[in-house]
Amino acid sequence: MKGPEIVGAAAFAGFARVCYHRGMFTGIVQAMGTIAALEKRDFGVRLVIDRRDWKTDYLPQDGHSIAISGVCLTVVKADEKTLQFDVIPQTLAETSLGDKHVGDKVNLEPSLAAGQPMGGHFVQGHIDGTGTVTQVKTSDGGVWITYRTSKHIMPYIVPRGSVTVDGVSMTLADVKDDTFTLALIPTTLSITTLGLHKVGDRVNIETDILARTIVHRLHMQAEGFPGAAVNMDLLRDAGFVN
Question: I want to staple 92 with a disulfide (CB 3.0 to 4.6 A). Which of 82, 98, 164, 224 is the partner?
Answer without folding.
Answer: 98
